[in-house]
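Minutes, project huddle
Topic: does the predicted pose make sense with zinc ion bound?
PN asked that the exact inputs be recorded in the minutes so nobody has to dig through chat later. Recorded below.
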Amino acid sequence: MVQQLKQTDEKYLRRCLELANESVEAGDEAFGSVLVSEDGRIIAEARNRVNEKTILAHPEIDLAYWAAENLSKEERTKTTMYTTGEHCPMCSAAHGWVGLGTLVYLSSAKQLGEWQTDFNLPSAPINFLPVEDIIKNVEVRGPAKGDLLGEIKKIHEINWLKK
Ligand SMILES: [Zn+2]
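Predicted holo structure (tokens), as shared on screen:
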């Protein structure tokens, strides 16, 4: 079930925005994500590394691998993933298989697709499905509204204008 963001989500989403900026500065796409433990600590961070690793190096799947290797099953269920953009189906499946808890995102995949269309960017080679259609029993919060949503849109646009 998709819900509205909570006020406490903002600081973690702001860290995701910083990672998205780092990603763009490194010549990659504007995606950044963090994992937050039950007691509110950021325990892992990742950004897009498609340019330096492989086309599959989305931050969310990297964090799913990290969680599988470093957290117990119980810890994973209590871990929240914050991310700049709603997972693609690959990352949704990884999130679900690893058994991570709540997902909080800034922009939905649908919004990102619309922004990309406005920039005449080539469309992705896969179909996007909402996260809740792929992961069973996951709590999802998003998208953000107002300034917070505007910030990730701006970072994407700055990046796309360079191309
Ligand atoms: Zn992905």
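Observations noted during the meeting:
- Residues 71 and 146 are 34 Å apart (CA to CA).
- The chain is about 45% helix and 15% strand.
No decisions taken; revisit at the next huddle.
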